[in-house]
Records
---
Amino acid sequence: MSEVGTTESQPEVTYRRATEADLGRLFAVFRAALNAYLLPAGQRGIPEDDHQSPAYRHFLRHDGERFWVAEAAIEELTGNLPGTLDAGGRHVVGWGSGLLRGDWWFLSSLFVLPEAQGRGIGARLFELAGSGAPPGAVRATVTDSLQPASNNLYARRGLLPREVLVGFEGVPAGNGVHPRLGTLTPERVTEASVAELVEVDATVTGVERGVDHEFYLTVGGRHGFLFQRRGRPAGYVLLRSDGWVGPVAAVRERDMQAIAAYGIADLARHGAAEQVSSGVTARSEGAQRAFWEAGLRFSGTPALLLASASWARLDRYVPGSYGFF
């Protein structure tokens, strides 16, 4: 196990790569860090159910070099004041993970306990999460617009706001009637479809996400549809069992509304989830129209896509989640 030693400025904090044994604690830190600002702002908090660990295992498998935790004795950080999590001994007080896909690096997660913030832990985890990324890589992350401290940290490191992401949620109207598709032909996505999903991504985002699509369709529990036009892949929509719509991609921008609407209608028809939700790039007018016409509404506060440079056709893409993009 790789270890990074302490420094004179913060002798109580050590850094190491994450392991399978850390996963439960990582979710607890994630939940505590988010609820510390969501609840006072009147936003919906993060529930206790841990649905994140399958994604964390995926990160460990494919990006373990970029998955780090910070440990400290919580009593030393708080002066024995009551904290967010149980104290006693050394615990994970922060963690960060980065995804590297070719020359595209994405900061998937960076969370620090409220008690441990303001000590440079987030800045150090940001550096470690970038391990192995080439100097010329496009670097990106998604943050909540309610987090000025985090957004300033990233901006100082060259990740500037490039796009707003708006949350949608609600119960779809109607009875799940599929939209007209014109010359598009839908087919169910299977694991054998990954190569065609990658072909669409090459046009839309320029990032090879084959391992992530494999995760979505197996452990991630998503289903969806691949759309063909004259025998060529033209787009896709993947759907999560809890009603999340995404990722969605279309080779042609004008197909986004129909493809997104098809996914929403499928969820409405089968009633697998109580409500449908997604995070949609503001530039994707077609996807926004699909959600609005299905009767969904904005939810929460907007998120921000921060990046060191532009890299994707965001008018024709909806992310798989804020932690995967």
---
Amino acid sequence: MDDDENIKFYNETLKRHLEFDEVVEELIKYIESDKNGRYKITVGTDSNGSNNAHFVTAIAVIKEGNGGRYFWAKTKEFFCPTLRDRIFKETMRSIAIVQELRGRLKEKVGEEYFWDDKITVHLDVGNNGETKDFVDTVVGMVKGYGLTPIIKPFSFGASVLADRHT
């Protein structure tokens, strides 16, 4: 996360903005509401297609087979003159959010739950279209941080949830 930003996430269900710690608490509360459920958390970022891009990051908790809940935050504008710049910035924003999220979840609920593939990074790239040249690089970036990347057409966290708010 950018240290100089005070990121506020919005949730449609709660109809309000939340600080990052409040998002973590809401994720935990949602998961603890049915301890028999199987959950995954996704983080994805999308940007508008302009040189002065806004970035929207979505954090979603999914109860497998039964929907979920998500939170989203929009940044100030950043100058990104190329598609490559935007894709790399999207990827790094998602990685930063996941790392912060994992750290805070580990503090609150322990290490055992949130590892393996339970937290994934959804990338707004795919093997078709204009982002295909970036797939290997951004997938490698995510894996280099020990995280699990998901690309289109399965990366709904970026290409659907975050995209709704760009």
---
Amino acid sequence: MYKKIFLLMSFMILIFSGCTKKTEENVEKSVPVKIYKVKSGSISKYIRATGSVTADEDVIVYSKVAERIENIIVKPGQKVVKDQVLASQKNDIQKQSLKIADAVLSTAGAQSKLAEQDFERMSKLYSEKAISVQQFDQVRTLKETAEHTLSQAKSGYEQAKEQYENSFVKAPFDGVVAAVYVEESQMINIGQPVVQVLSSSKMKAKINLTGEDIQYAKVGQKVLIKFPSLPDDKFTGRVEKINTSIDRLSKSLEVEITFLTKDNRIKSGMFGEFLIETQNHSNSLVVPEYALLPQTEVKINRETGLQNPVKKYYLFIVENNSAKLKEVKTGILNDGQIEINYGLKNGDSVIIVGQNIVKEGQSVNIID
């Protein structure tokens, strides 16, 4: 009797446990997800390259006189204007030569003026036949000699002045002193670097493009510029020049970029990343790239029998609190954002967290 009751109870427990398990399986679990509301935006396609910044004008001023440095007037980082004296060399001999040349020029000028006056006076007398031809020719010769002497004196003065001026190292344009290569009392030779001056108004960079990027570069394209040393800032530029031929050794094309952003923090020699904008699509639907679920399908060509892998992209959207799988067509990819050309509409809720675990039609719970 007890044995029958025990068997009956065991059978009822098994039936109840099976029903409970089926009931639990039929109760669908909601997956917590985060969403991104699709909206229209702008996205660009870029050519990426790296390079160093240089000043639009970058000049090293060399010495023109072999003499001792007497005075250094500027320091690195100092702003200068065109023809400002940056350093001076010992010039006692040049100064004395200039004084002598100036005196010779003054004397020659006075003699030339006197000869001119004599010639005018004698010309009048000659026209009145008061003097002979020989006398007139003699006065004219003296005038021409005085003029020649004056011309030589002027040349001598200009040479002496140039030698004197060469003892002063001057700025070739408005800019900033980048470096000073000499010290006071140092003896230097002709052609020795003295001061480096950079243009403070414009900066540029030269980059090299290779492969398929070469065909997409055009003069006038907008350039986005980033520097590792200035991670929180972005600068703008423009493609200014493109070489007409590709370098035979490196197989690269040199492109010159001019900065449109003027910022004193941008220094010559800084290393940066340059993004040349080749396409820009406005009013596009853009989503985070990681929302995509790429899949590769293999299709067989019936004629050749060859396998052709085809990559497709899917993502999940939320409709009526359920996940719905959508196939999409993609466009420009840039900086973690991707353009969707087909498969979405403005306002769709794209799952960006939880998309790898959710299933088609599964209930979802949207979290912040």
---
Amino acid sequence: MAETELARDSSSDRRPKVTVGIPSHNAAPYLAAAIDSVLAQDFGDFELVVSDDASTDGTSEILERYTDPRFRAVTSHERLGQSGNWNRCLELACGEFVVLLHADDELRPGFLRRAVSVLDASADVGLVHCAVRHIDEAGKPLFLQALFDEDRVDGEEVVLTHLLLDGCVINPAGVAVRRSVYERVGGFTDKIVWGVDWHMWIRIALRYPVAYLAEPLALYREHGKSGTTAVMASGRNARDEAWLIHDVFNSMRESRPDLYRLKRDAKRGAAHRTWCFAESLCEAGDMRAARIGIRNSVKISPITLRKAEVWTLWLATYFGYPWFKRLHARKQRLAARLGARASEP
């Protein structure tokens, strides 16, 4: 595989405590912000490695600006793809701990210091993640994604249960993992596109306690050109979720029968998430993609067909989303009146 490496001289051969790897592909509008957010951290014992996956958008010019000795860049001239580039970051990492930061996301001040402190204090913890602030394309705050109200080290598999039933509750924007953990569980799967990180977090949480920082120490950017948006529009998310559920639960059939019993509920959760994505697509006016999502929801869990909202959303892909909203509002008003009557003496 042909590669070009842009490296800076270093005065020491000592391995850094942390490797921050940024897998990048045509992310020039956001890449500098991601890099700058790492270089501005108040914990300095790190290396920053950008693995550029054959970008064609001027990324190379951005990378050439940086002279910090902790910074280096490796450019692949042939496409590796998402999981291939993430695994390339792991191969390039020299640090004891590894942070993979998407090229359109950012770390907030204090993330590395806080994450390293937790991993140093708890030798059994395999992964630490944090609350994450979602932002729009221009960096405007959207909402806070928080799993718990306070810091914790979860040794009772609460996070694992959430991952199995509720989807990817660990946002990849703020995650630090021991390099030895990645070496034990193996690389990111190339079998799927949607949920590659989710699949990895489950594999780690099955073997190690997971720590959480309640302070929002990372920013996750939502924009129309993100991989997440494209996958949802194609319906690939549902197919990949179905594969992921099959893969992780089959691996637990003999070793963790207590968790294997959750498979049916996990499938229902995946079907509901797929339906919710379909509703968002319908609201955005992408009716074809919405219908694909509804069909995929039913494929994941056929019991979904019993729900009236599935059929009404299907009709809304022909009559328009406002029709669906009016019908839903009417149903809520009727339910409220019936509830009020039932409470009367």
